[in-house]
Sequence to fold (1048 residues):
Amino acid sequence: MIPVRVEASRASRTGVWVGIAAITMTFTAFTSAFVVRQGSGTDWIHFRIPALLYVNTLILLASSGALELARPRMTRAAALGDAPAQGASTWVAVTLGLGLLFVCGQVLAWRNLVAQGLVLATGPSNAFFYVFTVVHALHVLGGIAGLIYLLRRLGQVPASLAEPVYGATALYWHFMAVLWLYLLLLLTVRL
Amino acid sequence: MTHVRETKAKIAELKREAPASFLRRYVFSLDHKVIGKQYLGLALVAVTVGMILSWLMRLHLGYPKLAIPGLSTLYPSGAAGGVMTPELYLSLMTMHGTIMVFFVLTTAPFAGFGNYFLPIQVGAEDMAFPRFNMMSFWVTFVAFLVLLAAFFVPEGAPLSGWTAYAPLSAVGKDAGPGQGLGQTLWGLSIAIFCIGQLLGSLNFIATTLDLRTKGMTLGRMPYSTWAWFITSVIGLIAFAVLLPACILLVLDRVAGTSFFIPAGLVISDRLQPHAGGSPLLWQHLFWFFGHPEVYIAILPGFGIVSHILAAHIRKPLLGPRVLIGCMAAIGFLSYVVWGHHMFLSGMNPFSAMLFSVPTLIITIPATIATLLWIGSLYGAKLRFTAASLFCLGFISVFVSGGISGFFLAQPSIDIYLHGTYFVVGHFHFVMGVAAMFGIFAATYFWFPKMFGRFMNETLGKWHFALTLIGVYGIFMPMHYLGLAGNVRRYSAFTDDYMQSAQPLHQFITIAALFTGAVQLLFFINLIWSRFRGPAAPDNPWEATTLEWTTTTPPPPNNFGDTHPIVYRGPDEYGVKGPNGDYLMQTDPAGA
Amino acid sequence: MGKLFALLVAVIAIVSTAFFVMHTWWMPPDVSVLGEGIDHQLLETMTASGVLFVAAQLTLAFFVWRFAGNDPARPIKSFPGGPTPMVVIATVLVGIEVVTLSLVGSKVWAGMYLTPADPASLQIDVQAEQFAYYFRYAGPDGKFGGLHPDLIDEGSSNFFGLDPANDTTARDDIVSSSLVVPVNKPVLLNMHAKDVGHSFYVPALRIQQDFVPGLVIPLHFTATTPGKYEIVCTQLCGLGHYNMRAFLEVKSQADYDQWLKDQANQ
Fold:
């Protein structure tokens, strides 16, 4: 019988990859809508994304880095058996903090734009800007929920049991950064 | 070894081996079997609503001036005096299609039976992510409530069809009755439904790939498991595209965007404030989802029919690997044919030719599968139960529906048949009948395992025979109407339009009401058998797959203390075994 | 039970096919140049499908009747050749049909949608709206006036939003609620929609084309027989969709010229 521990770890990774596939498909659909809309009307006014977004990007990348710093600590603690992964928890908490900071940064950017009168209805380029960044932020919030869950598990169960949760959460979190880099490129170059 | 012990403790806690509160056990259960039954219950309610809507529609089409008793109470403005207005007809039609496609055909064969039986058939204790699984049901339930709410808002339910083409669906109230809040609720409901489906697909895929028990290789999985797995992969991609489409549609309606609405439209004497959007964009996004969706509706039926047929012919099905390959091929090809819904849409006519080729090519795996089923009957020892009769009926109606598709796949013929009743006949045969037959077969077959009691076989056989006659009576004549040029989605046929077809419409209405009445046999059978049906043993059909190795009904963790070990594939019928002419998947070699 | 099933399926198959063969409900006679190709394609498909349909249903019925499992002594058999004959039949048979129909059908399709209209075509502007069609002819000056959606006024019958006050080419444009064309002359329709999606379907001409708001879509045909033929909407456009109808009137050249003159004088 396959040990349940290995089962659970495999399944959670498969689950995240499947989730990544679905999210990629969603953003592909949004991208194709974006390309079509750009070509179909004559009302496209190019829109420069706020500089704050670049700062937020650095924060998101830093959070991924922080999460990776937890990895060797997780592996070591898991190999040592029941040892709690103390050092790992700290870095996961840093990741969580930076992730929340990223979302706050995005909200700030949106509020600045709204204050300037640039809303969804202003034009198609504005509409797509909001659609892409808001949907991404919603998915980041999902990742934040995952990080919170991970922190709780780290406090509750031995490192060997928490390791699959860490692996899945990290995969998803890094994907959020990769996705964001893609969106940043798309919005900078084509918006 | 403390890890394993602790893991087991965690699993036991999750598995609710000591049943907790009523809420935890029956409402917010993490047990895939309960969740499967919840989905089936939802589908049962949905199909009842959808069927009643279809009766109202057919009554009006057959007898347009008929004052339907009670209708004016339900719809004081839509049916004053009991005679249906055109806008009410179209709303009922829209809701009928939406409810049937999403909350019946995507829910029952896939989320319902799949949730219940996939983990058991692969030998797992539960789905990979029980909490997500529970969420997926309740998200779907909320989606259903949001959709039904559209009936109760002042503007009424939307009338743009289940396909909700823009700009009619996107501009808002100006487009007419039904296009106010009702259409927005429609968009929100479907978006929420997408999320539920994605959570479900996640579970199906991870469970199939990672939680198979020892000895259960991919090659030894039953047909139904393969079908659910392929369906979940298709569904993942398809629903992940419908979700953004619905989001953009709702934004056009409430946020003043113009994703799908071009400039210069004058609706209800008002120049619309939108600009630059593309109605064709909606169609592309919708049908990129919509075509795979119809295969999501039918592929579980392929798997279920194959699974049940094998047990009733008492011999292996012809070409098991080929059959599975056909299902996979159909799943793959389903992604490159969506344009065949748009031949005449105004998209580049050259692409029509491009889409037509793979559409016609899909005929090949579909034909192979059909021939494999028919060929499997050769030399068999057929057992006739309600379940197997519905499987055999499935083959007949799938042939009928598939062949009419062959006409529509050719753009030059579609020029004449598009938008006519020929299309309505086609998709009802494959979806409304074949997929439904798969659901019926599954119910009769798996009811004993789920509830520990048999359904009444005599009632089931009557249900089958009368339904077969009824559905052919409803949907075959629609092909004749289509050939005569009778347009679909008309709320009535005015005195100067196709009056020669009216007798045929009346015939269809009577057939529809007859068939609807026959379904009472099924409902009564379900309810009566649930409480008073004769007790069923663990393996009443002498079948080989894992669900029949465990108790009836299965324990909370599916297999009790031991995990099954699989030694062989699911097709070992017609061989000498310890209990008869079959070997179960768990029978060790050399038994 | 097997016998009952076989009987039901066989009867249903034969009765259904009979109605197709007898053309009990059938297409109206074809009155267009390109219609013959479509009718031929349809009949080809119907013949091939009809044979396959009857063969499949009767084989199903026969096998169910023949192989009912009431005799425990009868050994089970496998279809000779296993799955291979099925794969071969399906691939070859369907494959040939697919290739043939695609090749022939694409010519028919191309003739209608990928071939440009005859340069000498009579051009007619078509507007679809909730819930009517309007047809516009260029008038004696041979030029169409510009369209201004903000000037559309149903009350004064300015359906197209013309601006005759400022636009000289618009002054003699003829607007009709019937599509009147001369027989045997190529016609090019330029189709646009005022509000939502509609469609233009003339069963007798074997043509159909959706209107897409925001686009102007060309559609050409040549009618071969004088008469009055129905134009119906096949794209759900709102509550009046069932009643959105117009008529195509095909007249002799002389009658058409007279009609045009009468319209211009109004």
